[in-house]
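Changelog-adjacent note: as of this version, every example in the card shows the full chain rather than a window. The one below runs 112 residues end to end.
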Amino acid sequence: MQRCDPVTRLAVEDRQEGRCWLCGQHRRLDMHRRLQGSLGGRYVLGNLIGACRPHHNAIHDRIEWALKRGWLVESYEDPEQVPLWTVDGWVRILDTGDVIRARQPDPAGSAG
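Full-length structure tokens:
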């Protein structure tokens, strides 16, 4: 079973200031791959978010809910390009680990 290396884990925790990005609580964070491992998702900064255990479980239990918020991405999507909702608003995470503000995605999937 593949695991997140300690350096990457620390970078995610630092990026999120030790908070779950779904609820804002300071708890132990699970490393969640937005593009799942079974679909080729890796433990890299642009594909990882830290979530508290209850929210990590909720992501996997409520797939459609998680997809709409960018916490999961489809197999054909690049996690770096898919915005996700956080307690701080919509962002994109680059593979460098940088976080940039993003617009809320159009629910219909069209640009206009």
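Structural remarks: The chain has a mean pLDDT of 91.
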